[in-house]
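User: Could you check the structure of this?
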Amino acid sequence: MGAGKTTVGRELALRLGCSFIDLDTEIEAKSGRSIGDIFATDGEDAFRTLERNTLEEILRTSDPFVLSLGGGTLQTSASRDLIEARKVHSFYLEAPIEELWRRCSLSPTRETTRERPLLAMGETAFRDRFSQRERNYRNARATIGTMGKSLDQVVTDCIAALRVI
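Assistant: Sure, the predicted structure tokens are below.
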């Protein structure tokens, strides 16, 4: 969360001439509910099941696309297995945890904590969750540093990484 997955993904898809899909947006469209509402009403386990099922549907598509995963998608082995089986070219958009927290908690253009359930838990929980997730992020095929880079630079780095994958 806060790494720029959606922003970078949209621009990458535009430059590659393919569609962009945001997993969280697809989940909300499929369920008719916000991510925050699903977490609050049904809990994280129910959300992860819906997430995995939606991911599976998306990955069945044969047209090229750029997909932005949710921050916790790779925490479930079933979702990781779907990504690995499809041999997806995955990127870890890397930024220090302090920067991720700043981007998520201080920017007035960001979604509210209702739409980002992890923010409602506070900075300590945010940091703890990131620490738990980071090892899965590092299993991506390429790590793209984002600090001090423009959107154009990050997207260019993604395209360059695709050429060597």
